[in-house]
Structures
1.
Amino acid sequence: MSSQNRFSNLGHPNRIWTVSAIHGECERLAAIHRAIYDKFSPGDRLVYTGNYLGGEQAAPVETLDELLHFRRSLMALPGIHAEDIVYLRGIQEQIWSKLLQLQFAASGIQVVEWLAARHGDMDSILRAYGSSLEEAARIAREGTMSMTRWTGALKQNIRLHPGHEKFFTVLRRAAFTTDRHSNDNYLLFVNAGFNPLLTLENQGDHFWWSSRDFNDIEKPYAPFRAVIRGYDPDRHGVHIGNATISLDGGCGHGGQLVCARLSDQGDVQELLGA
C-alpha cells in the first residue's frame, strides 16, 4: 500500500486491540486502558477508531491527556514500539480540521450553522479550547479577518496542552493488516464506513460519510477479509457480521466504550466494555 501518511500498515500482528468511538468519556477510556495494559504483549497492535473528544458528557482535554499517557505507558514496556499504536481520524476530527480553517470556507456562517444542527457535540471540543459554537457563529458573521484571528487563537490554546497539537497531525484515514502467509491485505480498520465500489486509495470522505448499510454488507471488500469500524452514527450497537464488524457500544450517548481483541484473521476473541 502507498500513501503512508494516509494509511497505517499494521503488518502481521498477533492480536489487534480495537477501541470504539470514545466521545470524551475519559473515565471509561481509563478503565479500558487498565484492562488492555494487563494483557498487551509484544506483537500486538492497538487501534483507536476516531471520534475521541466530543460528546454529551465529554471531558475533551482529559481524554486526550489519557490517550497520550497510555501511549507512553505502553511504550515503556519491553518490545512495544511507537508504530504498534495507531489513531484513526474520525468524523469529529475531520470536522475539527476544517473548523480550524474556517476563514477559507466559502460561507463560514453556513458551516457553523450546519455544525450546530448536525454535530452539536463539536461545541464541547470548542469549549475545551476556549470557544463555543455560539462564538464561532458570531465570528463568522464578522468576516474573514475575524475568523482568521479566531482560528489562530484556537490553535494557540491547543498548543497550551502538551502533545495535543501533535496528536491531530498523526491521525490516519484507515489501517490495515497484511496476511502472515501470502502478504495480501487482510483486515481493514475504519472510523464509520466505506464505499465497497471504490478502491482503498479512492475512498476519500467515504470513511466518514458512507456508514449507511455497513452492517448489511455480506461480501468481503477485496482484498480484505473483514472491515472493522468503531463508530455507528445510527447507534445500532455492536454487530459482528460475515464481512464487517461494528464496535460502537454508544459511548458518549449513554452506552459503553467497547474494545475488541481480534485475532490476526479478524476473529473476535474478547469484548471489553466500560
2.
Amino acid sequence: MQHHYPLPNQHPQITAQLEQGVLTLRLGTDLAPLALDVPAIELLNQLFWQVAQDPQVRVLVLRGQGRHFGLGLDIQDMESQYAQQPSRVHQALYTLRQWGNGQLRRMPQAVLALIQGQCAGAAITLVQGCDIALSEHGAQFSFTAADAHWLALEPAAQPRADWLSARALHFHCVSGQAASGLEAERMGLVTFSYPEESLDQALSDLVTSLREKDPLALQFTKETLAHVGSMSWDAAVSYTAAKFAEIKARQADSPSTRASAIAGFLAGKNKPGLSG
C-alpha cells in the first residue's frame, strides 16, 4: 500500500511516497518542472540522510512529477539568496558537488533516476550521483549557461568528464546543444535509454529485482564499488575478501574480526590480508 513519506521540511515541488519498500521522490508539479532553489537543495539533502538511516526504504527512485525531470537551478532564487546569505548559496552548491561526487552512491539503498522530458543544468549533477539512470529516447539533456555561472562557484559541482565522454561533454557544454536520451546513453550520462512506452515497465522490472536483493549484500556491493576503483589490485582483493567475510558474519548476526580490519583499512592504518 502506498503512503506519504514524511519529509524533514515542506517544499511545493517535492513529494515522496513509499510503497513496498520503494520510495518514489517526485520532483516538480504537473504544471511546472522542478527548478532547484536553495530550499529544495537543502530539503533533498536532509531527506537523503534520513532515507540512508531508514530500513523501510529498499530502493529510492527520483523522477519528475510532470513531463520533465528538472530545469536546473532557480536563478532568481539563487540571486536573491546570494545577495542576502552568500554562504548559504555556497553550501547549497557544495551539496550539489557531494551528490555528484558519491554521496548518493554511498547510501545503502539503490538510488535510481528516471528521466523524461527536460533535464538541464544542475539536474544533470543529480542524475550523475545516482547508481542507475534510465531515460526515454526523447529526453533532452542540456548544459545551461545560467547554471554554469553559478556552478562555477563550486567547480566540482559541474558535470564531470570522468563520468561522460570528455569530447562529447565539451561539445554539448560549448555549443549548448541538447543531447537526447540515446546520446546520453552513449555518453555514459544514463545507464539505459528506452522508447517512451517501455520506460515505466523497465523501471518496474528493475525496481522489483533490486527490492528482492539482500539489503546488506546490496549495501556492501555499493561500498565496495565506491572504494576499489582507487585501489591497487592487491588492495582491492584484500578489501573484497574482508568485505565478503564481514557480510557473512553480519548476515549470521555474529561478531566478526574483519570489522576492525576494514575500519583500519579505510582509515589507512593497515592492509587486511586474506586470512585471519
3.
Amino acid sequence: MRRDLRGRVVLVTGASRGIGRRLAGKLAKLGARLALTARSADDLAKLAGDLRADGTDVEAFPADLTSPADRERLVGGVVGRFGGLDVLVNCAGVCSFGEFSTSSEEVGRRVLEVNFFAPAEMTRLCQPLLTRSYEGGYRPAVVNVASICGRWGIPSMSEHCASKHAFVGLTEALRGEFQRFGIDVLLVLPGLVRSDDLNRHLLRNEGKIYLDFEGAQPSDAVADGVVRSLLRNKTEMAVGWVSWGVWWSRRLFPRAVRFFMQRKVWKYARRHPEG
C-alpha cells in the first residue's frame, strides 16, 4: 500500500529541532495537516509560522511530554483544533553519552522518561483517536523513531540503548495488538544523527569511545526515511549506511559486531590509561 497524507492530521513530537523539524517541513509538502509539539515554545511557534506562511494547516502545542497533564492537554488541543488524528510520529528524544559506572539514577530515569515512557503514554492516549480514523475509512499509523541502539547495545551509551531497546520492544508488541484497531505501527532506526545543538541533545557528553558526532548522518536524511516508512508502510526501516551495516551484521556476523564494539573500548583505554 501507499499511504496518502493529503488532508490528514499528523502529530509530530520533538518538532522544534532536528529530525522532527525537518520532518514537519517534508510532511507539509505532502499536504498533511500538522500538529507540532516540543518543549521550546519559541522555536515551535517560529516553525509553525514559517509553515503557515507557505499554506500549511498547522498548529503548535508546546508541551513537556514527560508531564501527564501536558500530554492530556496536548491531545485535547489536537482534537479541539483538528477534530481527530490520523498519524502519530514519536520523534522526541534525548541521549546520554558516557559510562554507566560514572552516571546516576537521575540520568537513567530522565532518559527513560523521555525516550520510553513519554512516547508510550502518547501512544496510549492517541490510540482511540487513531481507531476512529480507521473506522472513518483511513489506515492510521504510529511511527516510532527509535535508534539502531535499540537493536544492538553501544558502549558508552548504556542508558540510551536501554531506553531504545524498551522502545523497540514496545513497538513490536503494539504492532500485533493494534492490528485489531486497524492501526499500523512502524519502526525507524537511524544511526548516529547530527544534532542542531549537541549540548541540548546530550544529557552527558563524556563517553570513552570515539563517536563522530560532526560526521554523523544529517537530520534531513533521517526525516526522509521516516517519510518513506510512512508512505510505503514499511514495518521496520534502518536509515543510513551505519545503521544498515549494524542491522545486517547483527544477524549475519554477531561475533564480529561484538568484537568491533569491544575493540573501540580497548583502543580508548590504551590511548587514555588514566581514564
